[in-house]
Amino acid sequence: MLKESFYRPLGRTGLKVSPICLGTDNFANPTPEDESVSIINCAIDNGINLIDTSNSYAAGECEKIIGRALKANRRRDDVILATKVHYPVANKGINDRGNSRKHIIKACEDSLQRLQTDYIDIYQTHRVCMETELEETLGALTELQRQGKIRYCGSTTSPSWKIVQSALLAEFKNLTRMVSEQLPYNLLDRRVENEILPACEWAGLAVLVWSPLAMGILAGRYNNDDPESFNTARFQRGGIYAERITPKAVDAGKRFVQLAKQFDILAAHLAVLWVKDQPHVTAPLAGPRTLDQLKDLLPVMEMSLSDEIRQACDELVPPGSAVADFLNSAPWSKQKLI
User: pLDDT tens digit string along 234-274?
Assistant: First the structure.
């Protein structure tokens, strides 16, 4: 079991979270339910206490799996359960998406049923919705919080100006404040260091990180000299996923694997460790596809990044720069890497 000293404060709340948290995007797609449940139980048994999901993962099936697992193991009160709202779950209608009051309240009720719980610990807007006034979004979240259906709320993949706007609006209008920001951050895309992470620090937000392994690029999954290495589910999805796996990114990943060998550490361990020990980061989200992948990452929770390794990583991809585009799922981001 993880020692108490390794847990970290969740922003300005009184909560403490494990240095690695559990992401569940693979549940039901492709990870089957029995293995997903085993991953949940293993994570909790080893001290991971935040489970992150979304109503849109596997069209709601991911939330159902988590709900059944927590009901069976009776560990609901042992975890901080975080889910999201924004994307449509089953394309039911034009208003069943976005961050409007109507959609947020209905989606929350649906998530509570799928998760088989009376409350959600952190309810997150999955993306920024430029068509909806932020005051409307925060107003809906405030009502849900006052009803006891959510404990805290957070945002995901936001620009720095939205983070600041949200904090100021909440203060001046007496609305609920965001307590966390979930963003893409890995050694291949460090652009959040320029403005977004400083904005999070200013607003006192916890920072949860998705894709610390850069979709496996930093684990050496791809090889520019081997076309068969690109025969992966993520690359075959095409679109924003394939856009991230560029020759330049793969080359940087290859050099990262060599760097990890130089310091006698597994590349996957180093990728997650690097994110975990960056300034202002609360915890990376590990999204294992298999139980073995989760077990393999558990030791990283008690590891520390040395100054020597940090400097070597900075030389590979300098602070604030990028060789892959992990902000390409953000509708506000217009920058394209060449």
Answer: 666 668 888 999 999 999 999 999 999 999 999 999 999 99
Per-residue pLDDT of 192-230, as tens digits, reads 999 999 999 999 999 999 999 999 999 998 888 777 667
Instruction: Answer yes or no: is 320 within a domain.
Output: no
Pairing type for strands 16-17 and 8-9 reads antiparallel
Task: Determine, yes or no, domain membership for 227.
Answer: no
Q: Is the pLDDT of residue 335 over 80?
A: no
Active site residue 119: no
Residue of 121, 149, 60 lying closest to 96 (CA atoms): 60
DSSP character at residue 78 = G
Instruction: Name 178's bridge partners.
Output: 153
Q: Which domain, by its residues, includes 207?
A: 4-216+280-304
The answer to whether 327 and 189 have CB atoms below 8 angstroms apart is yes
- Give φ, ψ of 107 to 5 degrees: -65, -35
> How far is the C-alpha of 270 from the C-alpha of 77, rounded, in Å?
32
Sign for the pseudo-dihedral over CA of 281, 284, 236, 89: negative
Q: Is the bond preceding residue 279 a cis peptide, omega within 30 degrees?
A: no
Q: What is the pTM of this model?
A: 0.95
Asked if residue 313 is part of any domain, the answer here is no
Q: Would 34 be classed as within a structural domain?
A: yes
What is the DSSP pairing of strand 150-156 with strand 120-125?
Answer: parallel
User: Which residue is catalytic, options 7, 57, 87, 241?
Assistant: 57
- CATH number of the domain within which 135 lies: 3.20.20.100
CA separation for the pair 263, 280 (Å, rounded): 25
Q: Which tokens sit at 43?
A: 């994570």
Residue type at 268 in one-letter notation: A
What is the tally of structural domains in the chain?
Answer: 1
Q: Are 324 and 249 in contact (CB under 8 A)?
A: yes
Cβ-proximal residues to 73 (8 Å cutoff; 6+ apart), any chain? 40, 41, 44
